[in-house]
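User: My instructor asked us to take a sequence, write out its structure as C-alpha cells, and then describe one feature of it. I'm not sure where to start. Here is the sequence I was given:
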Amino acid sequence: MNSWITSLISISLVLLMIGMLGLIFVNANKLAEYVREKIGFTLVLNDNIKEVEVTRLEKVLQTGDFVKSVRYINKDTAAKELTADLGENFTDFLGFNPLFSSLEIKLYSKYIHPDSLTVIEKRFLEYPQVKEVYYQKSLVNVINKNVGRISVVLIVISSLLTFIFVALINNTIRISVYSQRFTINTMQMVGAGNAFIRKPFLQKSLFLGVYGALIANTILFFALFPYRKELSDIFGSFNFSSFGLVFLLVLLFGIFISLTSTYLAVNKFLRLKFDELFY
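Assistant: Let's start with the prediction itself. The C-alpha cells for your sequence are:
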C-alpha cells in the first residue's frame, strides 16, 4: 500500500511538471505576440496643435487594421512622466516645458516586422499633424530573431523533459511492481493466467494515472487562478479552453504512461523464473 501511495505522489508531481510545460508550449505563440506588441511607435505632434486635430488623428489611426491601441500624451503629462523617471522637476530648472505632445501607438504582432514597420512609418509621416516618428528598430530585429530561436529551443527542451518525465513515471511504476514480484510468481504457481494476473495491476495503474492527473491539475489550477489577471494581460484572457486542453492532455498522458509502464513491468516478471526474482 505504501509503495502505491509513494507512486501516486511521484506521478502527481511529474504530471504537475508536464502540465506546466504544456501550458507554456500551448501558449508559446501568445507569449511571442505579447512581447512583440510591447513595441510601438511614438508620433511626435506639431507644437501648439489643437485638441480637435489630435482627436481627429486618433480616430483616423484607430481605424487602421494594424493599430491595436492609441494613447494621447499631452505636454503636461509627458513632463510629469519624465519628471518621475528623472526624480527631479526639470521644468523648474529650464523655466519651460520643452516637450511635445505625442501619440503612443501599439501595433498588432503580425505587423512587427522591419518591412511592415518601414511602410507604416512612412504612412504616419504623411499626416500633417505629425512632426516626427520614433520606434526602436534595433529592438524589433533582436526580438524577431530571438522569438524564432526561442521556439526551437522550447521544442528541444520540451522533448528532453518529456522523455525524462516518461522515464520517471516508468521507473516509479516498475519499482511498485517489483515489490509485488513474489505475488506474481505465487499466482503463476497456482495456475492463474497472465491476463488474470495483469488485471489488478492494470486497474491500480489506471487509478494512479487518473488520480495523479487530477491532483496535478488541481494544484496547477489553484496555483495559477490567483494570477488570472496577470495571465490575461499576457494571453489576452484567462482562457479556460487552453487550460482545459492541457488538463485533458495531462490526464490522457498519465493514464497512457501508467498503463503502458505497468503492462511492460508485469510482463517482465511473468517471464522470470523463481530463482531469477532474487536478482
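For the description part of your assignment, you could build on this observation: Residues 2-33+143-278 form one domain. Try explaining in your own words what that tells you about the chain.
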